[in-house]
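Annex B. Sample input.
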Amino acid sequence: MITKETWINGLRNGIDTIWELAKVIIPLTIVIAVLKETGYLELLAKWMEPLMQVLGLPGEAALALVVGYFVNIYSAIAVILALSLTVKQVTIVSVMIAICHGLFLESAITKRTGIKAWPLALMRLGISILAGLGVNWLY
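Annex B, continued. Sample output.
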C-alpha cells in the first residue's frame, strides 16, 4: 500500500527534478532566443552549414551538438526545443548526443578510473559522428 510518506517523497523528488531541469532549460531557451534575435545564431548556422549538411542537419543544429557534447543532454534538449528541426533532424541529433554527451564531466570521471580520458572522448565523438551519418543515410 502506498503511504502518505511515499506520496510526499515522490512529490518532493518530482519538484526537485523539475527545478533542476528548469534551471538549465529556461536560461538556455532565453540564450537561444537572444542569439536568434541578434542574428548570431544565423551567423553560426551559415558557418557550420557545410559540415552539418553532411549529417542532414541545418547549420544551427551545431549549437545543440556542441551544448550536448560539452554540457549535458538536458541542455541539448533545451536547444533542440528552441530550434525548428524536423523529426529526422531531431533523431539524428538525439542519436549523436546520446552517444557523446557531457564530455568534460565524463572524461573527468573516466580519468579517475585510471583510463585515459582523451582517447575515449575522441572515440565517442567519432562514433557519434559516424552514427549521425548512418542515421541520415538510413532514415
